TrEMBL record:
The keyword Repeat applies. Pfam families: CAT_RBD (PF03123), PRD (PF00874). Keywords: Repeat. This is PRD domain-containing protein. Residues 76-176, 177-287 form the PRD domain.
Length: 291
């Protein structure tokens, strides 16, 4: 979206402040739009004006739910992560020549933040799916350079594959049959998680969205028959020991998928699923059980 599409105003009235560099305004159609610009939210409040010349980027997520999740994410992660994701996404659009789902602004920003966190703590994932989609993987490699230049962290080549997955997932050309199967798979897993932990997951929350993103990628790997591979058995054993309670949930999911779809999740996928289950449980206050 451009400033002209916002009415070509010289200044915009803030509806709410998200952070020093992000504010919301109401566009001519009555929808909330996110503006980014250096310091445009600093010491500002609802009703104040922001000069149009200070606006560097306009995030117009048409889906109110996605817009709300992006705002929630901006409250959790440093703004520069969204800046980095935006640069990667714009370059991906140029390289692939394809439209991308608006949701990638949320999922890729969150992934990069989590990847940097894993790098800091020494718990980076390996990714053996390197890589069936050469254009997207090349974009993933370029994304590593962007992340290093903007954030000062050099992520591993494995992360290029994960970033490529986000780009593929956002491309608007999915096969309907696969989408239906993946949707059914996700529904079964969510039902199993809610039954195991004894809670109703908030499908409007950022944590839920993060978990669903992982399940979408899992569903894609299942439909393609290309499972994650990681020969680090010591890491797998550590996850099983440390997150035993969450691993037991993963076992229930594995057994249900085997019965319903004749799918057998390998140990590597069980490890990743357990990590995401534990993250979901901890962030939503479901469980703090570790052994």
């Amino acid at each position: 979206m451009t400033s002209a599409e916002l009415g070509g105003q010289e200044a915009y009235r803030i509806s709410r402040v998200i952070g020093n560099n992000f504010v919301c305004i109401i566009d001519p159609d009555g929808r909330e739009v996110i503006l980014r610009g250096l310091g445009i939210g600093f010491k500002k409040q609802s009703g104040d004006l922001v000069p149009a010349c200070k606006v560097e980027k306009i995030y117009d997520l048409r889906d109110p739910e996605k817009s709300s999740r992006l705002m929630e994410l901006l409250g959790d992660v440093p703004a520069e992560f969204l800046d980095v994701s935006t640069e990667i996404i714009e370059e991906a659009k140029r390289m692939t020549g394809r439209r991308l789902s608006e949701n990638i602004y949320i999922t890729l920003t969150d992934h990069i933040c989590f990847a940097v966190e894993r790098l800091r703590t020494g718990t980076a994932y390996s990714n053996q799916l390197l890589w069936e989609n050469p254009t997207e993987f090349a974009m993933g490699i370029q994304a590593l350079d962007i992340i290093e230049r903007r954030l000062g962290y050099r992520l591993s080549k494995d992360e290029a594959g994960f970033i490529a997955l986000h780009i593929v997932n956002a491309e608007i050309d999915g096969r309907m049959a696969d989408m239906v199967r993946i949707t059914e798979l996700i529904s079964r897993i969510v039902a199993e998680v809610q039954a195991y932990y004894g809670v109703a997951l908030d499908d409007q929350s950022l944590d839920y969205g993060r978990f669903i993103t992982h399940l979408k990628f899992l569903g894609q790997r299942i439909t393609q028959g290309q499972y994650a591979q990681d020969n680090d058995s010591e890491f797998q054993s550590m996850i099983v020991r440390r997150y035993r309670y969450d691993y037991q949930c993963a076992e229930r999911i594995r057994d249900d998928l085997a019965q319903a779809f004749s799918i057998r999740l390998p140990p590597e996928e069980m490890t990743f699923l357990t990590i995401h289950l534990h993250r979901l449980a901890m962030n939503m206050g479901i469980s703090d059980k570790e052994e």
